[in-house]
Design a protein that fits this description.
The protein has 261 residues and is of the alpha/beta class. The chain is built from 11 helices and 15 strands. An 8-stranded parallel beta barrel has the order 1-4-5-6-7-11-14-15, surrounded by 6 helices. The longest helix is centred in the middle third of the chain and has 11 residues, at 110-120. The termini are close together.
Amino acid sequence: MRIIPAIDIIEGKCVRLSKGDYSTKKVYNENPLEIAKEFEAHGIEYLHLVDLDGAKSKHIVNHKVLVDIATKTNLKIDFGGGLKTNQDLHIAFESGANQITGGSIAVKDEETFLGWLKKYGSEKIILGADAMDEKIAVSGWQEESNKKLMPFIQSYQKKGAKYVICTDISKDGMLEGPAFDLYRKILSKTMRTETSITESGVEDSTVLGINLIASGGISHFDELPKLAEIGCEGTIIGKAIYENRISLKQLEQYILGNGQG
């Protein structure tokens, strides 16, 4: 399971929110690059970078932070927040993103999101499926849509999406543990068997599922092996790192012990 620390950006600063509420903003560092370099120094290879100003403004805002981290570290960056147009996506990839996450756009403009999947490929485009009471939330979680979580994920899986980040908003930033039951449910309902015939005429069955990235509520190190056991492909860790609930040394040892790469 990939370990993916999160850096959330408001006004160029590293912050954390609780349940997506902007009024709960807490600034942890004025310089996100410092944090990113510290992650890299502890063997971390991946970063989830969220433009919270962008999510609120509905267009990319903090791409300069992305450029800074992408050019001064070797972290593989998943970037999200406010990506609504082809131009936003172009800026994100030109600025150094390895992957982008589309959440609100996948709800409000399916045609554009599917166009991104077709143009850039399913390895580059992550479906953001953030929910409260299993209903999808959009616009930096400021709005609830009428989309139900499970059919939303299943629909995009059928249309080619392979990666999904799912945050149970009620858990986010609360340090009360992740939504284990929800992730089990998603993984069980997105598992499917694909059958093909080999050149020798033998029927070959392959079990396929979504690459699920868990996000929200991580509070203790011992939750990580449990998420891996469930079948999560990655987990995003935010406040637990910043509040010293999980040390970077622990994450470094976990990565070394599991041969992550």
